[in-house]
Each structure stands twice: as structure tokens, then as C-alpha cells.
Automatic annotation (TrEMBL):
InterPro entries: Cholesterol_7-desaturase (IPR050584), Rieske_2Fe-2S (IPR017941), Rieske_2Fe-2S_sf (IPR036922). The chain crosses the membrane at residues 276-295. Keywords: 2Fe-2S, Iron, Iron-sulfur, Membrane, Metal-binding, Oxidoreductase, Transmembrane, Transmembrane helix. PROSITE patterns: RIESKE. This is (2Fe-2S) ferredoxin. GO terms for molecular function: 2 iron, 2 sulfur cluster binding; metal ion binding; oxidoreductase activity. Residues 20-127 form the Rieske domain. It comes from Edaphobacter acidisoli. It holds the Pfam family Rieske.
Amino acid sequence: MIELSRETAGPPAELIFGDWYPALRSKELRAGKMSRALLLGVPLVLGRKKDGRIFAMRDLCPHRGIPLSAGWFDGETVQCKYHGWRFEPCSGQCKEIPSLTNHDVLEPGKIFAGAYPCEERDGYAWVYVPEPGTGRIGDKLPPVPELPKFSERYRSAHLVADLPCNVDHGIIGLMDPAHGPFVHQAWWWRSKASIHEKTKQFEPIPQGFRMSPHAPSSNSAPYKLLGKPVTTIDFVLPNRRYETIRAGNRWFTSLTTVTPVTASTCRIDVLAAWNIAYWVPFVTSIATFFGARFVRQDQQTMIEQAEGLRFNPALMLIDDADQPAKWYFSLKQARLKGTGEHPLSGPVTLHWRS
């Protein structure tokens, strides 16, 4: 991971609350231990109870504001270091205030620290981050994101990188179709000389859009290993890109998320799964090696872009290659305003060179 500084962070972006975000890898959560994370500028403390359940709390004691992560977790309750207040971490309910005496009428159980829904999926601890000031969170939540899989036996890999830019720049970089031959040049991927015109059809889906099933790029060497695959790519608010590649019984899927850490920085997580040659020794290590190089190229480009964004330059989006970015901004504004308007009324065909 690359540590980001205030000097390299880009301008802030408006954030989408009321949805699930990946906080950290669930393997980091061990019984009796606490881990810290930051999502949408909200400080979190996460852990795993003795019964295996994971939790996410706002990392602030409601009494005096000290981080709860500075205290203790015994596998059942989180105890504040300052005055010893004790909380059940899944609900946030206060279980004990040591300073109370028989003369006090205060009922600890009526006090709640901030606690958020937290679920495990595909090796992540996903946290539902509500709108500020929402109060108690009900049970009617959107489903937790999950990576599609098409067989019981498969391999998987995970990659992560911090980006010194706001979530909007991270997301439109994620969906940008024209940067590949320049940012991701490699003998095993593609080169500038491989650029050619492409035609893709897009269609609206709830909270996003889909690049309709198509044959993947002929100038990307790894796709040739699959024979004649068909690829489908979905983008879904607030931050998810799903890619599914299938060729008969062989398949590859990925879920990439760009998660706002603060209003001006974000993190990219890539989770991939496949059943191609899953029995081959070291196949996961090999895939992770090449995938990590791919993600580092994106990360380095975003670091360099952040240097320019510090000066708040006027930016432009062109047709057709930047049309998905325009759709993203329209979808985001519709969600923030609660209008429900979709920028696509039906299928659209785009053309670009890449």
C-alpha cells in the first residue's frame, strides 16, 4: 500500500451513503482483536465475536469521544479505555457504566454507541454506511454485493491499492475504455500498436448500465486462452464493476470496487475468481502477480493525475469513449437527488479506438 498525504489528495467529492462498502478483508478479524478502518470519512472499529459474528462500530465512545479501538475487546463486549463503559458491539447497546452507584437512575441499556450492519461475503467485511443522522438502522437493506461464480471448484485472488483521488475520478478511471493500450502496455496484454476501432452496445440496468454480451478484445492476449469467450460488464452504483467471461464450462469473474475512504481519497479492491486450470500448482500466485502489476499501473497513473488535479483544472469528457463516465455522473446525481431518472432510455451503441 502507498500512504497518501494531504498534499497529493484530489478535490473532495459528494459521497453516496445508504449502501454497502468493503471495509477490509475478513481474515484480518480475529476473535478478541479489534481492527480499524475508515469509510466515507467515518472512523470504524471492527472485530469478530467468540461466536464468529463480525461487527462494525463507529470508533468513538458516545460518552467523551475517545476511540473505542483504544480500549479492550474480550470477544463479547468492547470496553472504553477512558471510563470503562462496556458495549455489545453488534447492536452498540451499552451493557455497563462502572461509575454508576445505587443512587443513580440512569439505565445503561438505553444508551447506544454507533453500530453498523456488517456481513462477510467473498472474504470481505462489508459495512452498510447509512446517511448521517439516520438513527437506528432497520432490517430492509439492499443485498450485500457478491461475486458471481458458476461452479463449486474455483480459485480466487484479491488485490488492493490506495488512490490519491476522490471516488469520482477513481470510478471513471475504472470504466474508461481508452486508456488500456497506454497505461497497461505489456507483452502479455497489449501495446499501442494494437489499437483498433471497437463497437460496443450498452443497455440500462437498475442503478447502472451494462456492456452487453460481446466477444472480448482480440488485442488482449489472456482472452485467447479461453478460446471464444463472451464477456459481460456491469457497472452498478455506488461503486461496483462486475465482469463475467464465459466460454463453455470455463469462466472468469471479477468484482472491482472503488470505495471512498474520505471525500478526497479512495481505495480500489479487485476480487477475481475462475475455474480455468484451477488444479495447476501456483496458478493463484501467478494470476496475482500479473494482476498486481495491472493494478499498480492504474495506481501509478492516478498518483500522477492527482498532481494535476491539485490545481483544480477544467476537465472535459468527450464522446463516445467518455460516455460511460457521463452516465455515471448522471446516475449519481439522480440517486443523490432521489429522482430515479436514468440517463439511458434503451440500448445505445458506442464507438471508440482502443
